[in-house]
């Protein structure tokens, strides 16, 4: 700083005295310390550098959208969570007009357009369901598990047999007059009336295998039976083969011989005594077959068994034979 002395008419100069500035601390996010020179004096001040701003975490509550907010007092932007025009229920976001599930099946809810002053989100709008419980004369109103309103269900069953329509009451049965092997029952299944068809499958019947005069019909008038004039035949059934703890993965057809063979007691002139002869049903021809058995340790082994091809009467004791009926139920 220089000035002219009026007495000596000389120029007097002296260095500029800079004021003592207090130490500057830049502790806000994004601020850096910058030194600048003004009128020969160096000044330290805080400057904003967004490159030093921390990376913001864009995370907001469900139903809110994050956005940046800039203020003059702050260098770095702030995250602001703004509410969206949605409803939030049980961690799920619903658009306006969308249905919202309710714990009460009679309470129907959807996302409305009114804003909840506390959450700042849209509020659900709920109404109570109006159920129509008036049913036609031949139906009754029944509740449906898990639903508010029930439905009208028929109290009877309708069956069409040979182009004939028949109405059957619940727990009642109807049998056609022209078919003794079929019967229809009206049952209540899961709250609904449903017709069940019961068909009787008769065992094979051949009049030639009967003792004449023993043919008859069962009590239902469906199946014919008789006293069999048993012949020695191959009988078949299926079972799982087991050997030393190993078992077949599928049933195997097992054969046997069954039937009646002739016995006699005849007088022999040469022997001057009665000659007795007795025969029974035994195998006549057979083959050996193989099957794979699975053991408890997971290994497989081959096992051979005898399969009877034909039977005949031989001198031995004889087993008997029996037959049975089968009934089949079918829901309509």
Low-confidence stretches: 318-324
End-to-end span in angstroms?
Answer: 116 Å
The major pleated sheet works out as: 4 strands, antiparallel
Work out the strand percent: over 45%
The counted number of beta strands is 29
- Report the mean per-residue pLDDT as an integer: 83
Strand-pairing-aware structural class: mainly beta
Helical amount among residues, as a percent range?
Answer: under 10%
Shape: elongated
**Number of continuous helical runs:** 0
Element order, helices and strands? EEEEEEEEEEEEEEEEEEEEEEEEEEEEE
State Rg. 51 Å
**How are the strands of the largest sheet arranged?**
16-17-18-29
Q: Which secondary structure elements does this structure contain, and how are they paired or packed?
A:
Blueprint: E1 2-5, E2 10-13, E3 31-38, E4 41-48, E5 64-69, E6 78-83, E7 87-89, E8 92-94, E9 99-100, E10 107-115, E11 122-128, E12 139-142, E13 151-154, E14 156-161, E15 164-169, E16 173-174, E17 182-189, E18 192-201, E19 216-217, E20 224-225, E21 233-239, E22 242-243, E23 246-248, E24 252-258, E25 263-268, E26 273-278, E27 280-294, E28 300-314, E29 326-331
């Amino acid at each position: 700083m220089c000035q002219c002395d009026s007495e000596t008419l000389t120029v007097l100069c002296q260095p500029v005295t800079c004021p003592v500035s207090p130490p500057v601390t830049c502790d806000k996010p994004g601020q850096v310390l910058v030194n600048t020179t003004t009128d020969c004096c160096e000044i330290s001040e805080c400057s904003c550098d967004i490159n030093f701003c921390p990376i913001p975490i864009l995370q907001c509550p469900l139903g809110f959208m994050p956005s940046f907010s800039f203020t003059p007092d702050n260098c770095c932007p702030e995250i602001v969570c703004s509410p969206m025009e949605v409803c939030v229920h049980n961690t799920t976001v619903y658009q306006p007009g969308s249905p919202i599930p309710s714990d009460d099946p009679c309470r129907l809810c959807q996302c409305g357009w009114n804003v909840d002053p506390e959450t700042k989100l849209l509020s659900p709008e709920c109404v109570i369901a109006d159920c129509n419980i008036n049913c036609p004369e031949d139906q009754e109103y029944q509740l449906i598990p898990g639903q508010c309103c029930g439905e009208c269900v028929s109290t009877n069953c309708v069956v069409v047999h040979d182009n004939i329509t028949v109405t059957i009451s619940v727990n009642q049965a109807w049998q056609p007059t022209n078919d003794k092997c079929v019967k229809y029952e009206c049952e209540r299944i899961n709250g609904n009336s449903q017709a069940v068809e019961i068909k009787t499958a008769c065992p094979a019947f051949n009049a030639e295998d009967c003792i004449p005069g023993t043919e008859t019909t069962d009590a239902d008038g469906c199946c014919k039976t008789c006293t069999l004039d048993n012949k020695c035949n191959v009988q078949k059934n299926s079972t799982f083969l087991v050997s030393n703890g190993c078992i077949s993965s599928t049933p195997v057809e097992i054969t046997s011989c069954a039937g009646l063979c002739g016995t006699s007691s005849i007088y022999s002139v040469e022997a001057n005594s009665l000659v007795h002869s007795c025969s029974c049903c035994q195998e006549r021809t057979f083959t050996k077959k193989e099957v794979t058995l699975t053991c408890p340790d997971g290994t497989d082994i081959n096992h051979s068994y005898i399969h009877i091809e034909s039977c005949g009467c031989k001198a031995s004791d004889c087993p008997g034979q029996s037959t049975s009926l089968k009934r089949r139920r079918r829901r309509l």
